[in-house]
Amino acid sequence: MSKQVKNKIKWVGKVDWELKHFHGDEFKTDRGSSYNSYLIEDEKTVLIDTAWLPFDKEFVSNLKKEIDLNKIDYIIALHGEVDHSGALVELMREIPNVPIYCTANGIKSIKGQYHKDWNFVTVKTGDTLNIGENTLTFIEAPMLHWPDTMFAYMDKEKVLFSSDGFGQHLASEHLFADEVDEAVLYQEALKYYANILAPFGMIATKKINDILAMNLEIETICPSHGLIWRKNPTQIIKKYLEWANNYQENQITIIYDTMWNGTKTMANEIAKGIQEVDKDVTIKIMNSSKDDKTDILTEVFKSKTILVGSPTVNNGILYSVAGILEMIKGMKLKNKKAASFGTYGWSGEGTKIIEEELKKAGFELVTEGFKNMWNPDENMKQKCIEFGKEICK
Ligand code: FEO
Question: Is 189:242 a contact under the CB 8 Å cutoff?
Fold first, then answer.
C-alpha cells in the first residue's frame, strides 16, 4: 500500500515489522525497520530505490498496483546495498531497458551483487535530471556509509532523499517522524548513527556542511529506513553534526564478561566507587555475553569513558570481550577514555590484552589495568571501589 509523502511523491516501500537482526547478525533491530522506496510522478515517473531481496516479489506486485511499470522512466539507486537494491532483479525482468541512475561506485556494487548489465547511467555531484516541474540534483555522499552512496534533491518539492543518512531501524504504521514517540525515534536514530555511521563522522560533518553551503531549501528529508523528517527537518541535521563531533554524554560504561562472577563483582564494586565521587554520572554495566552488541556499541558511543573487564583465560580474554573490543575498534571513536580490569588465577595477562585493544581502538588509557587474583574478598572489593573513584578523578 502506497502512502502520500508530498504532492508528487508516494512511499512505495516495505515495513518489516519482523526484522530482528540486520547486516546478518550485526545489528539488533528489535523495533523492526522499513525499506523506503519512493515513486515520483511528475511529467516523468521516477522510482527511488526498491526493497530488500526477500520482499522482491511483494514489492514489484505492490508497485504494479500503483502504476503501469512501463510508465517508469527512470530508476534511481541511491545506494547498492541489498536492502535497497534487492528487488531490482525482479523489477528489471519486467522493464529491462529503463535507465538506472547511480554513482560510478553504485554500478560496481550493483553489478558485483547481481551480475547484470542493465542500462546504467553514471551521475556525480551536481548532475541534474529534469523530470517536468521538478529537477533532481544528485549529490555523491561516499562512505555514508558505502562508497556508492548518493543523495538526491528534488527542487520544487524541496525534498532531500538521503539514503541511509538520517534513518532509523523503526517499523511504524506512521510515515512521518512527528507522528511517533520522539524518545523512541531519537533512541533509534542515535542507535543507527552509532552502529552504522559513527566510523564516518568526519565525512558526515563535511558532507552536511557541503549540503548546507548549497543553500537548498529542505522541507522534507526522506531517508531509506524509518520515518520521514517533515516537521523541522533540520533537527536531525543538527543532531548529526552533534553526534559526528566526538559526541559524549556524562556517562561511564562498564563492559565485562565473567566465568565465576569474580570479574562481575569487580564491575559492580567499581561502579559503586564511581557513584560515590560523581552522583550525576550515568553508569551502564553491561555483560558482553548477555547484552546485545548493538546496545553495547550505542552506550559506548554515548560514553566519555569505558571500562572493560575479563578474567584471564588460557593466557587470553573471554571471546565476548574480544568480540566487542573488535567492534568498538571499528567505530573509530575519538576523545574517549578507558581502562581495563579483571580477575585471574595464575598468569593474569587479561588486563594487558584489553589495554592493547583499547589503544588500537583509539581510547586514551586513564590508568593501568586493575587486576585481582581469584575472587575479590572484602579488602579487594574496597580496592575496586577506590579504582572506581580514581577513574572518576
Ligand atoms: Fe540501508 Fe546501507 O543500506
Answer: no
